[in-house]
Amino acid sequence: MLPVRGRDGRATGALRILGTRTAWTPVGDGEFFCPGCGGDRNYQRLTGRRRLTLLGVPLLPRGETGPVVECAACRHHFGTDVLGHPTTRRFSAMLRDAVHTVALAVLAAGGTSSRTALETAAATVRAAGFADCTEEQLAALVDALAADTGRYFEQPSGAGLTIELHEALDPLAPHLAPAGREALLLQGARIALADGPYIPAERDALATVGAALTIRADDVNRLLAAARTPS
Questions:
Q1: Tens digits of residue pLDDT in 156-180
Q2: CB-based contacts of 140: which residues, under 8 Å, 6+ apart?
Q3: Alpha carbon of 25 to those of 8, 69, 74: distances in Å?
Q4: Residue 127 pLDDT > 80, yes or no?
Q5: Which of 70, 142, 190, 223 is 20 to 30 Å from 18 at the Cα level?
Q6: Which residues are CB-contacts of 21 (< 8 A; sequence separation ≥ 6)?
Q7: Could you tell me which residue ranges the Co-chaperone DjlA N-terminal domain spans (predicted)?
């Protein structure tokens, strides 16, 4: 760095002699949740090549850098790990599907003979985003799952709907706050309690929900007991 002096001899700035410059090359694009903007934005995935500069003129290569993700709106650069966070639209769809799967699991465990349980489940699923969901649709889905023995809760340790629960909940759990994970479990608990106390199969299904949501077993028991206690 050399000082740049004005007419009075005082330093007024600095002239950069040596530096580095990065030339970025787009290698992909898409939509992501931008941490800087706080919303869904388009992005470009970039890789870069650094060069040593002399008086701003690029000279010697200094290796590669990146890849990085550049927001099309704010132009900030982020690590590629931000692409692991779902967009707002994707997160909403994941949550909606999770509520639907939890409702089916609880109904499959407790049966569909109770109209109250079906009504509670349908209302819960509609509130999550499936506006056209009906009690009849849920009952038909549970019957179809019951006919498919590879997907039904036949025993506490069976594969049953456990696979579906983990497929729906495992990707969602890391992006939910603890209160959100607990709220999802409690939605299932309210469906189970709509027609009376938990039966063992319902508790097993809800325990599977809690495990998939990474809620500790003692916390699952606490939440299920709290849901059973009238407020």
A1: 434 667 888 999 999 999 999 999 9
A2: none
A3: 45, 11, 18
A4: yes
A5: 70
A6: 50, 51, 53, 56, 58
A7: 98-223
